[in-house]
Design a protein that fits this description.
Blueprint (H helix, E strand, L loop, with lengths): L16 H19 L3 E5 L7 H20 L3 E5 L1 H9 L6 H11 L9 H14 L2 H14 L9
Parallel strand pairs: 1-2
Helix pairs in contact: 1-2, 3-5, 4-5
Length: 153
């Protein structure tokens, strides 16, 4: 598994929410058009103590799923615990441990920064190493008319 791209769509808190969401949507549409992914994996929204923050993350996730749907890309969601388990072997891993493991698993010279970029790559690793990978491959085959998996024996 290799990282083809990675980063963070940055917005500023002084912008109205609809402008911030529009920038996320526009940027993701451009990235989807450029990379032509067969699937999009996202982290399920975790409702902790800060409901306002959770709502903003939920809105951004919705915009990401909309961008994917507009391009016919299927979406797959994973819990934070499942992502940490897939990357670190423990659902309770800390952010720094996730960053280090993402860098190691992808053969990067150093852990990815900022931590949000590492989180996004961790979600992709989780999807790629799980049943989601098989689902995405099946969806891609169905969309392109490719035959099923063949094994020489």
């Amino acid at each position: 598994m290799v990282a083809l791209d990675g980063g963070v769509v940055e917005t500023t808190p002084d912008q109205p929410m609809e402008r911030r969401l529009e920038k996320i949507h526009r940027t993701l549409k451009e990235l989807i058009a450029w990379h032509e992914p067969k699937a999009m994996a996202i982290e399920e929204v975790f409702f902790g103590k800060n409901v306002r923050s959770a709502m903003a993350v939920g809105q951004a996730s919705g915009v990401a799923m909309l961008a994917a749907a507009e391009h016919g890309v299927g979406c797959f969601a994973y819990t934070p615990q499942a992502i940490k388990m897939a990357v670190c072997g423990s659902g309770g891993a800390g952010k720094k441990q996730v960053q280090r493991m993402v860098g190691t698993l992808l053969g990067l010279p150093e852990p990815p920064t900022p931590d949000h970029a590492a989180d996004a790559l961790a979600v992709a690793i989780c999807h790629g190493g799980s049943g989601g990978h098989r689902q995405a491959v099946a969806m891609a085959r169905e969309a392109t008319g490719m035959p099923g998996e063949r094994i020489a024996g």
